Amino acid sequence: MFTVNNSNGMTNNSPGKIFVRAIAITVLLLVSAQASADTPQQRPAYLTFGFLPIVSPERLVKRFAPLVDYLSRETGIEIRMVTAPDFLTFVHRTQDEQRYDLLFTAPHLYYLAHARRGYHVIARVDRPGMQAVIVAPHRSRIYKLQDLRSKRLATTDPLALTTVLVREHLEANGIDPDNDLTLVATPSHNASLLSAYQGATDAAALILPLFRRANPQVRESMRIIDTTRMVPHMPIAVAPWIDPALGERIASALVSLNESPDGRTLLSHLDWPGFVTANEEEYASLEGIVRALKVP
Where is the signal peptide (predicted)? Predict the structure, then answer.
């Protein structure tokens, strides 16, 4: 089975090796998304790093394989990337099958993993937080939240942060998301935006940074109708069976990325300013939306 551990430094990877590694990790992710899991009774001598399927396996590889390589080198432990075919399967593999030693997941799904299975956050992206925006085409007559009544609003996966934040925001403003409008699930944030741009839906919801990075022609054709509250940024967590000393080593490796040229190159690739240490209290405000998810 392919692993993402690489004994060479970040700057020594040839384009050919990177291409071969990306293909191999993609195969691993795709196989993992369909394979049945073993419980962690006798764990092998490697760590399984579960990535929420926020994008396709190929795009997960492209963005996060360098981070996994870096952590493998810094810890001296082989680390393997895995994902799942959808959000719900990922949640079940986290809490029921206990498949992941390390976890990269959405803030509210981290809260769920911590509450139900004792996962412990060790670091988060060093940004103030995340919030969703609701946008509508300039050509439409949708100017405010109440104009969404009886309209079609494109969202992402029902368990995605965008969707749960938007549902919460609609309810807080007296709009029943199940009866006063139609929520249309799409495969991704970009698909949600394109749905409104192309007229398949009347408006779209997506995470604000992704809207800002969208195709300029699409982005400039939209107006922001409203924004949701802000929640803590994406966390990286360790399973309760991971040695605390190892968790500290991984956290240290993440936080120190800014201290070397190669680390800063990696952060630039991730489009993040860095990582900071984090704790459970930062995510406590997500209890309400997690309870509303009603995940079995």
Answer: 1-37
